[in-house]
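Why predict the complex rather than its parts? Because the way molecules touch one another can change local conformation, and only a joint prediction can capture that. The input here totals 286 residues.
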Amino acid sequence: MVPLGYFLIAWLVLLACYAVFVLITLIQMLRHGLPSPFTYLSTFIFIAVIAAVVLGCGMYFLNVDWDQTIHVLSGVTGLFFKDSGLTGGEAPLDIPL
Amino acid sequence: MIDLSNIPGSQPDEQTVFFLRRHWFVMLPVIIGFCVVLVLPVAVYSLINIQSPEFFLKQGAFELYVLGASMFFLYAWLFLFQNYIDWYLDIWIVTNYRIINIEQHGLFGRTMSELMLYNVQDVTSEIIGLIHTVFDYGTIHIQSAGETSRFEFEDIEHPNHVAKRVLELAHIRKIQHQRKGNEPIGTTI
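Output of the joint prediction:
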């Protein structure tokens, strides 16, 4: 059982790293790119898309209960292996010889 | 166009003849790759829904998917933009005095070099392959006097026309250079 909030923390850490990369990229673009409308337009589109995604996610995450816990492994294995019908404490079937 | 007065060593009567970038077709595989990558989160969502429709009904599953998919998209978008920068910041400028070569290598590598037109010895244009021929883009190699390294304009539009014009400009500049009392290039031992 893993609290969902842990994944949010991991997401925020990745977002912080992302912000650093974006900052470096923007500095490179604005420092070395020619001062033309196309440079500013492409930079604006780049930032606008990032802002839209981050804000959209942020709005969605506001309504999520981050205290809930999830079964990571059971969720993933459930995707690949069909339920056999057996539960943990159930005895195996008697197969006649 | 670029303001040449911002570039060091510019002459008062210097004019831009060509302002060159790689052909847009070079960016196409990157854009297609990005579109494919963009479809991946949606494809994964659809696949999971087909394979196990109850998966996203589980507690926290959809939230986990949104966390992963959003981060995946953001990094893919950054990757695309960095490729775009790599393309956009590779510039070759031909003026009536010189050739300026500005190349971006990844995010942190940048090369700037220039070659005076009177030093140009040989210009070779190269269009190899079906796509290059159809879209008329290719590479120009410029050999300068006394230099082993060559200037390369990679994947530029109409390379034959550009090569011809560079040769003409180099010829004019050589004559003017000699008239100023300089020795002809390539004659010194």
